[in-house]
Design a protein that fits this description.
Oligomer: single chain
Number of helices: 6
Order of helices and strands: HHEHEEEEHHH
Distance between the termini: 27 Å
Strand content: 15-25%
Shape: globular
Largest sheet: 5 strands, mixed
Number of strands: 5
Strand order of the largest sheet: 2-1-3-5-4
Helix content: 25-40%
Length: about 170
């Protein structure tokens, strides 16, 4: 009971700070009790409506198409009659990351880091986009023991969801 109360307290604190997904890592998996799942996602009523602007739109389109093959959650562009759940953008950062998914009140964001993306190989750009969209779907980073998974925290072994990524997706949705 004390552990559950501490998890709720930590999660509440993280939400108040408006922190990005990795702040939730320890709490999210404990709270869901399943696989590699975050305690949040960009999904609203079975879909993610996205907007924004990025130089890496072809890589985003590729990632969306791959996750849409799973068919449980529809990822589609925002329209005049829908509410944007996820916004894509670009920024230059000295951080050693290719991109960042952030869960925010109002709409979530995926920001691609031009520092790496502008010079990266096409495969790594596709892998990064598909990986970050996986976070928007509520899937957490996998450890390196899942070396072939798309959702491995620091790896570019694939640019499409693999068996364990699909298992986590199906556990979530």
């Amino acid at each position: 009971m004390k552990q559950k109360a501490m998890q709720v307290l930590l999660l509440s604190f993280a939400i108040i700070l408006g922190s990005s997904y990795w702040v939730f890592l320890g709490v999210a998996n404990a709270a869901t009790g399943k696989g590699h799942l975050l305690g949040h996602s960009s999904v609203d009523n079975g879909e993610i409506r996205w907007g924004g602007s990025t130089k890496y739109q072809s890589q985003v389109d590729f990632g969306i198409a791959e996750w849409n093959k799973m068919k449980k959650v529809k990822i589609a562009p925002d329209t005049a009659t829908t509410i944007e759940d996820l916004k894509f953008s670009d920024a230059y950062s000295s951080e050693s990351i290719w991109a960042r998914y952030t869960n925010k009140v109002g709409h979530d964001t995926i920001v691609f880091n031009d520092r790496f993306m502008s010079e990266g190989e096409a495969f790594k750009k596709r892998s990064t986009a598909a990986h970050e969209i996986g976070h928007a779907l509520g899937i957490d980073d996998h450890s390196s023991s899942y070396s072939d998974a798309l959702m491995v925290g620091a790896g570019f072994s694939t640019d499409v969801p693999q068996a364990h990524d699909k298992e986590d997706y199906n556990d979530k949705w």
